[in-house]
Amino acid sequence: MLMYIVLYLYKTTSINKRWVRGVNEMARKKTVMFALLFTLLILPVPEMNHSGKIHAFTNQVIQQGAVGQDVIELQARLKHLGFYSKDVDGVFGWSTYWAVRNFQYEFGMEIDGLVGPEMKNKLVKASKGYEQYLPSGDGQTNKQGQAQGGGGGGQQSTPSEPTAVNVPGGYSQNDIKLMANAVYGEARGEPYEGQVAVAAVILNRLDSATFPNTISGVIFEPRAFTAVADGQIWLTPNDTAEKAVIDAINGWDPSGNATYYFNPNTATSGWIWSRPQIKQIGKHIFCK
Amino acid sequence: MFRWITISLLTLLVVGVAVFAYKEHQDKNAILIQAENSYQRAFHELTSDVDTLHDKIGATLAMNTRKQLSPQMAEIWRITSEASSDVGQLPLTLLPFNKTEEFLFDIGDFAYNTAIRDLDKEPLSEEEIAGLEELYKQSGDIKNELRKVQNMVLKDNLRWMDVELALATNDETGDNTIINGFKTVEKSMDGFQQTNMETGISSRPDEKDLSHLKGEKINKDKAIQIAQEWFGEVEPSEFTITDSGKGADIPTVTASFHKDKRNGYMDMSKQGGYPLTIMVARDVEETKISLNEASNKAKEYVDKLELKDMELIESSQYDNVGVFRYVYTEDDIRYYPSTVQVKVALDNGEMLGLDALQYYSRPNESINQEPSLSEEEAKEMINPNLEVQENYLAVIENDAQELVLCYEFLTTKDDETYRIFINADNGEEEKVETLNTSEEKFTTDIS
After folding, report:
1. B384 close to A (CB below 8 A)
2. A207 lies in the same domain as A276
3. How confident is the model at residue B9 (pLDDT cuts 50, 70, 90)?
4. pLDDT per residue over A1-30, tens digit each?
5. What's the rounded Cα separation, in Å, for the pair B289 and B345?
6. Which pLDDT score is estimated for B366?
7. Euclidean distance between the first and the last CA atom of chain B, given in angstroms as a whole number
8. Which positions ≥6 away from B63 have C-beta within 8 Å?
9. Counting beta carbons within 10 angstroms of the beta carbon of residue B121, is it exposed (0 to 12), middle (13 to 18) or buried (19 or more)?
10. Is B62 on the interface with A (CB under 8 A)?
11. Domain containing A139 — which CATH number?
């Protein structure tokens, strides 16, 4: 490897030599020699750094559900060994879990689905040359990746980002986005729990006999949400609204199983006041 | 000269404005007509669906052959779901129209359960036939009332946009024919609810019940004290304590505080002060601890609830928080209805959320813990194309909302993972789930 580089450098400099005229030959040769020696000293170091620093597990024990660079490396290595066949996406899902377990079985380890130090050592030793399975775009510093951090953490340069995300309870990212839009349009000035509660009401309506059975059906039901009627649902939601939605899908329900809510200052319907009230969070009263 | 120029300019302006206004008016009308048309379509489809529904139920009553009954029930189920979808497209949300919607739901539910049941083994009981007759009567009433409304709408060219307007302007007492018509439909449903319950056709999911919890009713001071245990450095005066209202399934006390950067919210049961829902909202810094460390932290919080025998069954990372689901395990049996969830920040391991409502609202009812089938026998019930990876004993709630003891199998086929519950007594497949917890990012711009 190094030999080639040296040869290459020598070649290029000798070509250059022909172009540049009126330069002292001796001095030139000296420079070339010096440059060659210098490259010999310098080159190997960054090369080792390259493979050593960027693709290496951090110290964490990786478990199911984790997201980040460690998972990307884990998947790429398992794929190289033939334990894993899906895309290297950086999310430790079920397929990765089975791959880890099979690896642990084959290598005579305790089968627990956790990627600890022992497993990492064995994996690193067994999977030389796994780099081809790393997702493309690898090695580029990615600003977004740095901002997001990811499960690996603590690395200077970010090899590549996970290309998938965990989604709760069978809902898609687009469902979450749609709900976040509704929550933001309806309750963006509310405390966090108030936003979770509004998201929970949408989900409670899904289960209710008297409302449509899809998220879009519930949200776009005429006169159900003022934010839909006046177009505020199309404002761009912030992260808080999205987090509130994910919490609600994951089971948090501060509304107390409510299917309606209203703002007592602006409520236009007298009927809504007749519903049994559960509690007030922020400006909204939640009711059955 | 100057005057003429002014006059002609002004005239031009007036003409321009008039043309513009006319165009706007036309556009607005076009949109209104379109909205009106979609309301009209939903309404007329609803009436025709209810019509068909009534006919179909009538035909079922006359049917003798079981072979015919199942497809007929499937058809009824399909029509009810279409009818409910039509109702969902009409601006009726703030109208009392619940009973009719529940009625549609009940028929759908009943029809579905009958359609999938083996009627040769388990024919319709006397009670169910009586219930069906009742449904027939009810659907007839609804059909007639809706037909009346429809007739009025067609005769007088009534517009649904006026309904919208009437509802929007808080004209509750306003005399809108359509609204009144729907109120009559709703009124005709009064009293039917009870009979449906009696004939076993209506089965609404039971409400959460915490009456089995032990302990004294807590007062405000006690609530603050409990909240402090969970939130840490918050002064008692910073808490807002409120009691839940009359509509709550379970009486709860809510403690919340709002500081600059950290907000907290906590629901606890009035009886005994058990923490049900806890949420802490703050900005979470970059990830510093792994999901695995976070799960150890989460366990500490579960232990703080003084719940024993909780087993971690699911963990997921969302950006820089981890969410962990624990399930109650006794004698190696997982009780899926009794779950606790904990959300932990991945910057310092602080608990950001806890949800124990499910756990406390499910008293661990006694259930036969001895499976009549062996594990091998249960395994034979599984589709042979699946490869079984793990198995457990588990208690789940089935479609009929009964607790059943099952064998839980985690199986794979190609790259998919399935969770299959086989009833440990009769070998039926109670539930099959595709486990899919992640989704590809569609754009890299989402942040």
Report:
1. no
2. yes
3. very high
4. 444 544 454 444 444 444 444 445 555 656
5. 9
6. 65
7. 65
8. B69, B72
9. exposed
10. no
11. 1.10.101.10
What distance in Å separates the CA atoms of residue A115 and residue A100, rounded to the nearest whole number?
7
**Count: domains in chain A:** 3
How does residue A35 score in pLDDT terms, banded at 50, 70 and 90?
A: low
What range defines the domain where residue A38 resides?
2-42
Taking the alpha carbons of A237, A241, A247, A248 in that order, is the dihedral positive or negative?
negative
CA distance B325 to B313: 6
Set of chain B residues whose Cβ sits within 8 Å of the Cβ of A94: 412, 417, 435-437
Which residues of chain B are within 8 Å of residue A64 when distances are taken between CB atoms? 314-315
Q: How far is B292 from chain A (nearest CA, A)?
A: 6
Question: Same domain for A60 and A123?
Answer: yes
Extract the tokens encoding A76: 């790429």
Residue B208: what are its φ and ψ, rounded to 5°? Answer: -70, 145
ipTM for the whole complex: 0.81
Question: Looking at the structure, do residues A175 and A281 belong to the same domain, yes or no?
Answer: yes
Cα–Cα distance for residue pair B321/B323, rounded to 1 Å: 7
Domain limits, chain B? 2-198, 220-360, 375-435
Task: Tell me whether residues B317 and A62 touch, CB distance under 8 A.
Answer: no
Does the beta-carbon distance from A279 to B242 stay under 8 Å? yes
Please provide the distance, in angstroms rounded to a whole number, between the alpha carbons at the two ends of chain A. Answer: 73
pTM, full prediction: 0.78
Q: Are residues A193 and A105 in the same domain?
A: no
Q: Do B244 and A256 touch (CB under 8 A)?
A: yes
* H or E segment to which residue A40 belongs: helix A25-42
